Structure of Peptidase M20 domain-containing protein 2:
Amino acid sequence: MKQQLIEEIGKIKQQLLNISDSLYENPELGDQEYQSMQKLVAFLKEHQFEIETNIVGRATAFKAEFNSGKPGPKIAYLAEYDALPGVGHGCGHNLIGTMSTGAAVALSKLLHVVGGSVIVLGTPAEETNGAKVPMSEQGIFDDIDVAMIVHPGGTSHESGESLAMDAIQFSYFGKPSHAAASPEQGINALDSVIQLFNGINALRQHVTSDVRIHGIISEGGQAANVVPDKATAQFYVRAKSRDYLNEVVEKVKHIAEGAASMTGALLEITNYELSYDNMITNQVLSDVYTKNLKETSNQAVLPPKATYGSIDMGNVSQVVPAIHPYIGMNEATLVPHTKEFADTTITEEGHQALHDGALSLAKTGYDVLTDSKLFKAIQDEFKKTK
Ligand SMILES: [Zn+2]
Ligand SMILES: [Zn+2]
């Protein structure tokens, strides 16, 4: 049966490459990926998937389902297709979208025999305001049994962890006045922001080493001779687990309040982007995928990356067994979020990664659909980690 998957991927390979290359040529930013979504949706429609667009209130999100009509697990492949300002597909999401779509189409051809259903979820704006967050919150994964996504990289890595993250904005409101003639009349909002940075820098000594806190001053006054009456800082705060992150964020908020007291400015705290949870890899599912990749690709599969980033797949992994491995483009020195990374996605190595990733995903889906012992082991592990 797996031989048939190899043939099915072979049949659609050229179309997948064309779609990925055209996404590279026409990169679209998060929540504006209309053309990219259309291309993937059109391809899935061609292969008899039922399409629903504009889900969870996101115009460029979609759900495409192929249901065999026979009982069996529901396998979800997640497709990303957002690009970055300046560097286009510098994170290679053109490959992610096509690998997941290709895997789903190939697997769908075997469903009349093995039963179950396969779904592609189009998940916009991973780089900014990941749609996987509202999808996880609004029950999209309730009837799904496993969720998979593969990210391109320089080298192949097993699925691992990622940091939980909150994006927090601190706005201080003071009182303007002439900075030289009547400084005593002013309340300096910028001073609060500076104290906020100082306080956070003092906190760094007393958090675990996985914590990352990094921020900018996005608003710091208009002119040096006017006491700044409004100042704003934006921070990302990250930690290995959601629970510990919540503790750290509490401390950061106390610092922010202290900084307001020091000047008398008023403080407003908001989340300027969605929060991401830490990634929990389902090890049983991950091992099956790794076995399939090793069988498919001649590149080494390295242990999980020691990563300090955050991904919206983390939120998905909290509600359904999930994996987020990396597929190598045979270029160990490749740096993500660069033009070079984007350019590599359209080379022979990038195309090979697309093929190998799609096939390994399809094979893994097939294993989950046909091996009930494996299916149970995946669910048991998930229940245990919850
Ligand atoms: Zn990225
Ligand atoms: Zn990415």
Notes: The longest strand covers residues 164-173. The chain has a mean pLDDT of 97.
